[in-house]
Amino acid sequence: MSIHIAAAPGEIAPIVLMPGDPLRAKYIAENHLTNAILVSSTRNVFFFTGTYKGKHITIGASGMGCPSIGIYSYELYHDYNVDCIIRAGTCGSYMTGIKLYDLINVEVACSESTYARTAFDYMKNNILHQGKAYQSINDMAKKLNVSLRTGAIHSGDAFYRADPSLPEIVIEHNCLGAEMEAFALFANAQYFGKSAATLLTVSDIIRTHERISADERERALDLMINLALESCLQMS
Ligand code: HPA
Q1: Whose CA is nearest to atom 9 of ligand 1?
Q2: Residue 167 C-alpha to ligand 1 middle, in angstroms?
Q3: Considering only CA atoms, which of 50, 39, 54 is closest in space to residue 1?
Q4: How does 13-36 read in b/e, with b if 16+ C-beta sit within 10 Å?
């Protein structure tokens, strides 16, 4: 048990796949895992542990934003000795060349967030993916013939902003899109010397407000989930 996760020690697998939404965690566990057991539902943030093609995997939600994923990923690494967390989420696209349903494997997360500074005295505004998970995902995408972009993402603190122009940090790092969690996940993984990747499906185009409907989301995310789960099989 940790402060925010009720699972007993040993009920969380060494690899965790982490969507943002608790109901998406439930959907993935019910549709992709065998013998999935609900191991934590504190605050309705669900964690399920089961097997995928014989490999022990936990699917657990992060909630939204750096503070939330900061808590869950910290406790997974520190209290449950998790080796690798793969965030599987959605993002908005900043660039016209990046379309709805495109997949992005995040090489570096850029943020104005104070999370890494507050937690670890880490002063840079960008943090790389950590460990081998990122490369495993790139390799698996090639093997499965899934098209995948790599690059920088903006982990923003504000979903709604008064100023419609591109944030400074997006221009500075040539960020492909916006989400709200990768920066804190990578900061925690770096602090603990663990592995972390973030795989994203483009769910909206920021400039035009075009978006995947709520109904389409589940189906749209299956390609990303399959890629993430197959990549997990390659990791020790
Ligand atoms: N901004 C921030 N986070 C997001 C977005 C967005 O446009 N889309 C999905 N997550």
Answers
A1: 91
A2: 14
A3: 39
A4: bbbbbbbbbbebbbbbbeebbeeb
Q: Would you call 222 a catalytic residue per the annotation?
A: no
pTM of the model: 0.97
The one catalytic residue in 21, 121, 139, 204 is: 204
Per-residue confidence in pLDDT tens, the chain, 236 aa: 999 999 999 999 999 999 999 999 999 999 999 999 999 999 999 999 999 999 999 999 999 999 999 999 999 999 999 999 999 999 999 988 999 999 999 999 999 999 999 999 999 999 999 999 999 999 999 999 999 999 999 999 999 999 989 999 999 999 999 999 999 999 999 999 999 999 999 999 998 999 998 778 877 789 999 999 999 999 87
Distance 120 CA to ligand 1 centre (A): 26
226 CA distance to ligand 1 centroid (A)? 22
- Domains, the chain: 15-232 (3.40.50.1580)
How many CB atoms lie under 10 A from the CB of residue 122? 14
